[in-house]
Automatic annotation (TrEMBL):
InterPro entries: DUF4287. This is DUF4287 domain-containing protein. It comes from Alsobacter metallidurans. It holds the Pfam family DUF4287.
Length: 69
């Protein structure tokens, strides 16, 4: 049985369907704007790419957590 995806990654299928781009695309955009504060990156995705707050927050949170490893 497949394990249920939790946390920010649980939004990924909806993000890809809604905005028509793979998650790697959005993560690359976030990384291009780094270093920046979390909410600045969220605001960038919302204003420049029309992304909803929850989706933008999920991408930023997951990307920053991944890069902190």
């Amino acid at each position: 049985m497949a394990e249920t995806v939790k946390g920010p990654a649980s939004y990924f299928p909806s993000i890809e369907k809604t905005y028509g781009k793979p998650i790697a695309h959005w993560k690359a955009l976030v990384r291009q704007r780094s270093p920046a504060k979390h909410m600045e990156l969220v605001a960038f995705l919302k204003t420049e790419h029309g992304m909803g707050h929850g989706h933008a927050n999920a991408i930023v949170a997951h990307t920053l957590a991944e890069d902190a490893k």
